[in-house]
């Protein structure tokens, strides 16, 4: 059946009214304003307005015939005044006012005259009529208040807001809307006026909790959280509505920690948040990944039966636990839901997919089908993510076929992008490219997924080609894209292309404050052998970071420029940067290569005492190898003996063994060999080094014995270059 247009529906309802008026309530005598209906059906609740937008022209005639609307003259004047108000036609409105006075109909039309004058900006005339005729209609007072707000007369608006309540009239939703604009206007007053207005509003709220709650809402929405918090902390305002409003606003502004702090204060005062606030709190926990606070909010929900059985809240709890990584709890809550729909299933599947639990996501998908729930686009987005993370190309292909079969891919660029990403993560880049080419509309994300796939698979040339095509289609790259491209240029050692990308980054103004891009550029230039350009990037960067300097120092070492590497280390220190564990690895290696053993020992000792960097196994391996290669074997052995207990320290013993091989030191070599095979008797390198030591010493029988041990212990690990 075709859906009726609004005009057709209203016409049908009016015909229903005239067939049997007894089925309709006549609400005209008690109307609080134009927004309220003239008639309301007693059973269905349908509403009708005599002067409604879609009211057919024949209705007024029928009302006169039936006697339901005897005063068509008043009706005509009301319609004219509303037209004047709508068009801001003050001159015509004044003429109609005079005509109404002549006919003695002012009492019937005073409220519409007030509204007309207020909307036309003639506030003195509106005020005079309001006070002369003692209007008892809220909408007339609201019109005057709204007029003052539009004129920026904040104090007058507040005065009439207070006066209206003194007359015994309660503000409605529209009045509060004007009230909120009044408070917004307060933000633009000078300090003294603002303070006076704030004090007036807060005094007013002390006697009217509803006003106070609205004021809290207004303060938070205008960003005046300190004012809102001050009001909520006051005794009259310690209620669920005010606290909940504050929580919703904090969450809406992204201040999730503050929202949770409000919940903590509510708990201390024994006040429970409403359902909307709980939704905001759950979102806050999801965003910051705080499952512990999520538990408290979940417990709050379970205290109240209506909330406990609320399907929407239940789904939100599932979503919260899933996003916090607590998928076991998410599953438990999900299993306890009275009714499960596509939204709750999607929340659980998405949680598993986001946490890298692809198999569970696929299992959920099958369970959902068995439950009689059909998947939608959102479901497939999570499933494709799961397949991509698992690199399950065949599973992904099966879902791709189903998506196409159900027509979900048509004009759905998000789903198309998910397919590109899934195939790219699975290494099926030809398929990924084909999906991209078949998309009727591609966007930046489409290209990003493909380029990231090329970069991950080491297909740098294809990544650069796709990057250029993306730009030709009018999609400017962002930071993430630039990082991918710099990685591609590094692997290809394409310094020229990298320099072009460097220029694009600079033109977009992304470089000056972004340490990740700075380090990526330094890495790229270092790997391309353009150390001068790498140094220039660092020198021009306004704020320095250790990671970028480490990359440069490592680059100089790689190129054999050890003195320059050490100079960079000293320059880094002069800029006030503290070296980290990676820096010291480079420095110890440089000292070893240059034979600066005293410096190496000093730097190694200063790591913990001066720089608060605890040496790890790699540092011990490096310095033992350095001393060993320098022929200082006893010194190297002493460092090994002082070394703390590491979980699997075979590397340091192999470094010592390598040094013993170099200097044909049998006794120390035998000790190091015994320690190494005790840690791992299947490591081939230890046997090879020890056999070589024996051969160099002319102890051939011992060498054969070591080789026999090697075969017996089924050594399978490849030889390592000791000390490397």
CA-atom Rg in angstroms:
39 Å
Helical residues, percent: over 70%
First-to-last CA distance: 80 Å
Point out poorly predicted stretches: 186-207, 718-724
Strand-residue fraction?
under 5%
- Number of β-strand runs: 3
CATH class of the domain at 616-724: Mainly Alpha
Number of helices: 41
Note the main sheet.
3 strands, antiparallel
**Average pLDDT score:** 85
Q: Largest sheet, order of strands side by side?
A: 1-2-3
Structural class by helix and strand composition: mainly alpha
Would you identify the CATH architecture of the domain at 616-724? Alpha Horseshoe
The named CATH superfamily of the domain at 616-724:
Tetratricopeptide repeat domain
Query: What name does the CATH topology of the domain at 616-724 carry?
Result: Serine Threonine Protein Phosphatase 5, Tetratricopeptide repeat
For this structure, the quaternary state is: single chain
Spatial shape: elongated
Overall description:
The chain has 724 residues and is mostly helical. Among the domains are: 544-613; 616-724, Alpha Horseshoe (Serine Threonine Protein Phosphatase 5, Tetratricopeptide repeat), CATH 1.25.40.10. It has 41 helices and three strands. The chain has a three-stranded antiparallel β-sheet, covered by helices on one side. The longest helix has 16 residues, at 72-87. The radius of gyration is 39 Å and the shape is elongated.
